[in-house]
């Protein structure tokens, strides 16, 4: 076979047995027959090459677990955490012109000092250090496997970026010649456990809360200094402020009456200022706010309550938002009075809670007035 012919046929070749011989065994859940019809309909209007990629993945791994008109997604297929086929074709000229639409993702912790090297090696690579994922995107599964193998070589110091780029081209030539190079056939390493690859990073806002994890130095310090009660109180106040800030920000984007929009703007600003005071106070009294399970539950509660009406707009959103503010501020007052003030042993923290309570009470009265006005207007 001449090399010119090989180049012309490269985009049509899928390496036999590439990536995994496990087939559908890695699928966490198989889709039923009705779902197969939905998948077929979803990709009906796709361009020819992504449609081919979709059908190749279906043939190997079974029906996807997610299907839209823009992408198909498989979870836990073979050694991969995720496989995605996209309708979108993205031109990519390394190692030769083709289009990207097929992405393979593994659990992998890329060191910070290697991130730039991997992008320099192949700009189609995607690195998510927070989740702990490494993805390769190409038009063939075998070439994504090749990318991931060479990524691993770069991270482990086995190859430089220049060596990896040259190796990619050389191995693709071998692949086209039908030599089935191991770096195309399968991953040459075992992907990491997804539970161990996440990287939560570090706060940069002074006084930010920390998570109540044993590995968190600030949380341990709060516990060791006997300031856990103050730490949880501070984090609770911060959670209340952040919940109100989020809701207020959403309200300001809606088609609602000016008085309610002004109220949302007031809450956004005043809860923001209170949050700033809370974080600064923690620094002053040397009590880092700690996100305990109770604090996290408060965060989730706020998210759940906002989710119940955030899709609304106009008068429907306005009514739901004001009602939520009445309920939320009433509960916040009760929490300050019955829990937080009793837990706070520090005088400065008690004073801050008193000031916070005054703001919350004022916000509650304004919300009740708005609610009464809305009720009268609807009569």
Structure annotation, total helices: 14
Order of helices and strands: HHHEEEEHEEHHHHEHHHEHHH
Helix content: 55-70%
CA gyration radius, whole angstroms = 28 Å
Strand content: 5-15%
Explain what this protein looks like in three dimensions:
- This protein is α+β, with helices and mostly antiparallel strands and 379 residues long.
- It folds into two domains: 3-196, no CATH class; 210-378, Ferritin, CATH 1.20.1260.
- It contains 14 helices and eight strands.
- β1 and β2 (71-77) form a beta hairpin.
- Mean pLDDT is 89; it is low at 1-29.
Structure characteristics:
Ferritin, 8 strands, 2 domains, alpha+beta, 379 residues, two-stranded parallel ribbon
Task: Give a short summary of the structure.
The chain is of the alpha+beta class and 379 residues long. It has helices at 3-9, 33-42, 48-61, 112-121, 141-155, 161-176, 182-185, 194-197, 217-224, 228-251, 258-284, 293-307, 314-343, 347-378; strands at residues 66-67, 71-77, 80-92, 98-107, 126-128, 133-138, 210-211, 290-291.
């Amino acid at each position: 076979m001449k090399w010119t012919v090989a180049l012309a046929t490269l985009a049509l070749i899928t390496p036999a047995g590439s990536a995994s011989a496990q087939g559908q065994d890695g699928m966490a859940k198989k889709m039923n027959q009705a779902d197969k019809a939905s998948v077929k309909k979803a990709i009906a209007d796709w361009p020819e090459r992504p449609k081919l990629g979709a059908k190749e993945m279906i043939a190997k791994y079974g029906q996807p677990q997610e299907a839209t008109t823009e992408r198909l997604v498989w979870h836990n297929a073979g050694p991969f955490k995720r496989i995605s086929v996209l309708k979108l074709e993205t031109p990519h000229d390394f190692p030769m012109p083709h289009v990207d639409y097929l992405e393979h993702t593994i659990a992998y912790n890329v060191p910070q000092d290697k991130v730039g090297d991997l992008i320099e090696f192949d700009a189609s690579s995607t690195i998510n250090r927070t989740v702990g994922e490494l993805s390769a995107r190409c038009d063939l599964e075998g070439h994504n496997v090749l990318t991931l193998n060479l990524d691993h070589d770069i991270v482990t110091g086995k190859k430089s970026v220049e060596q990896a780029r040259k190796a990619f081209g050389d191995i693709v030539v071998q692949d086209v010649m039908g030599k089935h190079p191991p770096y195309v056939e399968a991953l040459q390493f075992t992907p990491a456990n997804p539970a161990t690859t996440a990287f939560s990073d570090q706060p940069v806002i002074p006084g930010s809360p920390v998570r109540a994890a044993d590995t968190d130095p600030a949380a341990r310090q709060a516990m060791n200094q006997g300031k856990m009660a103050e730490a949880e109180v501070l984090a609770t106040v911060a959670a209340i402020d952040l919940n109100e800030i989020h809701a207020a920000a959403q309200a300001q984007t809606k088609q609602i009456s000016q008085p309610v929009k002004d109220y949302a703007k007031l809450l956004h600003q005043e809860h923001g200022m209170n949050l700033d005071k809370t974080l600064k106070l923690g620094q002053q009294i040397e009590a880092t706010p700690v996100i305990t399970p109770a604090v996290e539950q408060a965060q989730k509660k706020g998210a759940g309550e906002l989710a119940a009406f955030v899709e609304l707009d106009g008068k429907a959103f306005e009514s739901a938002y004001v009602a939520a503010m009445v309920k939320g501020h009433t509960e916040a007052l009760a929490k300050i009075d019955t829990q937080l003030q009793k837990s706070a042993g520090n005088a400065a923290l008690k004073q801050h809670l008193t000031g916070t309570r005054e703001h919350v009470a004022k916000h509650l009265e304004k919300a009740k007035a708005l609610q009464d006005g809305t009720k009268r207007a609807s009569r």
